[in-house]
Amino acid sequence: MDIISHNRTAWDREVDQGNEWTIPVSAEKVAAARQGEWEIYLSELKPVPRAWFPDLKGAEVLCLASGGGQQGPILAAAGARVTVFDNSSKQLARDRWVAERDGLEITTVQGDMADLSTFKAETFDLIVHPPSNLFVADVRPVWREAFRVLRPGGSLLAGFVNPVDFLFDEKLLDEGILQVRHALPYSDLNSLTAEERQQLYDPEDTWVFGHSLEDQIGGQLEAGFVITGFYESYRADGAIGKYMPSYIVTRAHKPKA
Fold it and tell me: Which residue segment(s) compose the domain that 48 sits in?
């Protein structure tokens, strides 16, 4: 299975179906961001603290695996020089559409989040990474590449899914029943039989992976980052949200030389 190619096609399909992460930000929010009133989300419900951001005026910002016309246009309207990098051409088209609608300058680049070789080392002051690394089988290269392209003193703001979310039997979860079924880390390739996958999902749906905290947090530390911020956030709905948050968001710095 070519996971990157499969998920690229699957996310193009998600755009066509109106997935919430593919709905562009409104012109009103862009206008407010130009006046200094803005916020972005790296989870469903809780905005990233403004104190986590550097001065955005003229800052080089990489929105990593962050297409969809949401984070990138807001940061561009706030004064940043934004590059949106995403695997899906249709997600990137959302950002270009907002840029044209609202007169923003946004660069879009298509590719695999684990391979940022198109960028030179120490290119960006800030990387913004929503909870999208569940669509790659190995998350550690994502952290290593983010560290490489970030300038010393720069920050990585990253959201990801709590691996506990992947413990439960998904069919029963849809009925509001939390029954532990899967060992962690979770993989659509290995944690389900072919028959179960066929029953639960359309063949064209995304393949997902529930990475361990050792890979998510430990992987950032191993890459060289120093974690300086942390919070959890709940899903908007679903049985799990009654008991625990489903998202983790971290702020990490690349130390100055």
Answer: 3-162+211-253
